[in-house]
Amino acid sequence: MIFETRTVIPEPASIDVESFSPPLPELLLDRRAVEHDLGYHSGTAPEPVIAAINELLPRVASHAQLQCGFRILPPSSVVIGPESVSCGSVSLSMGSVITKQLKSSSSIAIYVSTAGHGMERWANQLMAAGDMMQGFVVDTIASGLVEQASLWLEKKIAASVKPIGWSLTNRYSPGYCDWPVSDQHNLFSLLPAGFCGITLTSSALMVPVKSLSGVIGVGSGVKRGAYQCSICDLKDCYRRREEPEELEEQR
Amino acid sequence: MNEILLSLTRCVERGKVNMKSPYPPDMKGQEGADELARKALDAGIPPQDVLSEALIVGMQRVGVRFRNKEIFVPDVLMAAKAMGAAMAHLKPFFKSDALKHKGTIVMGTVLGDLHDIGKKLVSMVIEGAGWEVVDLGTDVSPEKFLKAVDEHPGCVVGLSALLTTTMVNMEATVKHVKAKHPQVKVIVGGAPVTAEFASKIGADGYSADPQGAVEFLNSRCTSN
Ligand code: B12
Fold this sequence. Notes:
The complex is a heterodimer of chains A (251) and B (224).
Chain A: E1 17-20, H1 31-38, H2 47-56, E2 67-72, E3 78-80, E4 85-87, E5 90-92, H3 96-102, E6 107-114, H4 117-128, H5 132-161, E7 167-172, H6 184-189, E8 199-200, E9 206-207, E10 211-219, H7 246-249
Antiparallel strand pairs in A: 1-2, 2-6, 3-4, 4-5, 6-10, 7-10, 8-9
Helix pairs in contact in A: 1-5, 2-5, 4-5
Chain B: H1 3-14, H2 33-42, H3 47-67, H4 73-95, E1 104-109, H5 117-127, E2 132-135, H6 142-151, E3 156-160, H7 164-167, H8 169-180, E4 186-189, H9 195-200, E5 205-206, H10 210-220
Parallel strand pairs in B: 1-2, 1-3, 3-4, 4-5
The complex binds cobalamin.
Cobalamin sits between chains B (73, 115, 117-119, 121-122, 158-160, 162-164, 187-192, 207, 209-210, 213) and A (143, 146-147, 173-176, 181, 205-206, 209-214, 237-238).
């Protein structure tokens, strides 16, 4: 944010850090979504795969340990520059692709979500017992859950800033749109230690592995547009879509 | 071509493990890879032919179809399971030297990285191509790779990583292994890895998919 407007921006002090355990039934992960995530985009998964999904999905509840949470940085300490966003002494080197999307934000919300260790353990058990396919289905379900938990969290963030008239931009994560994964260290330095049970290794890997991190711009004048692959030139990104509307609204 | 071997190839391709397995539905009640491998050996077909003319052929087709995105990871894993059921009957012949692997590859996910499945998948397809795979697991240090190379003279090394921050540890591994064994070939892979990165760090090969790894091994790493 820019200096002159600092005084008129409300400080959302009461919603600094919040964390949740999203209830499984509120996450939209059904058989078709899992089939899609496994690669069968037109619903052509072979029978044993469909049978595995049908058998495993109802058992997710006893393995998943979903947690997610966010922190809205104090607006007065946030400066959105051309290449980075800084908060106090910490600078997040997101690159211009992302900062352009955040530029009218008053602050940013940092978020994380995780499916916990339980899903990984379950997948490993199945694989060790010789059922690689089932193990892979569980691994894919876990990835889908983390994505869904992030979407769920986005609604919570939106609800918490609504009273002060703010809205949200899209989500942006280290490792996407030119933002280096190594910046995870800076991002995590702005969160309480062990937030939502997630820790970061020196190689910037989040543990549990089934975790996601990122930022969302918040402010009175910001809009959540369609996911814009046209803003980024990473040609082989798996999320690249020709039609920009497709991704976020899909699930 | 022998009828039994043709059926065995088909079982691997379709992921038909044994008589009991209900899938694929159109093969229900028929013999699977398990029974057919036994039958082939009992009929006096040399183990080498069972491996080369049936199992490897089936797995090769699977690898190609996966690369062409005609099938997906679960299909490959089901095929590998059928392959494994047949391989169980061939194991004793490897011990008695009646059957030889094409070579050995030491595989692992590099230091700092815990991603396992991609590496496992590549390993299974490589095994299905007649290679011996020594899987060191995840978070494998350069020292541990070197130790495994010491223990498996003439082996190839395969490195996996899923993040750009862990991919950099591939370079240290390549350097560490090649400092002592300059002739050892290293192939690298994983979502963020590119052919350009591979050549920059001194690796000998790169592949985006398992079949490419098999092609690299068969064309660049065999003595015959
Ligand atoms: C599913 C997924 C996730 C899941 C879980 C990941 C997992 N595997 O457990 C979730 C949602 C949790 C996730 C999180 C993140 N992810 Co992610 N994720 C993916 C995705 C879509 C698929 C990965 C996967 O499981 N594929 C299936 C397996 C079977 O494939 P694979 O491991 O790649 O292996 C294949 C090949 O690579 C190859 N191969 C693998 N090893 C080897 C070895 C050799 C020798 C050879 C020859 C070949 C080979 O063969 C295998 C079979 O085809 C990829 C994008 C993509 N399409 O690859 C991004 C991707 C890996 N993620 C990425 C990122 C950035 C992240 C996050 C950092 C984002 C964030 N800030 O939160 C986090 C990190 C999580 C952590 N723990 O730190 C980036 C990584 C690149 C980078 N910039 O570093 C990718 C590539 C997406 C992108 N930007 O394009 N992710």
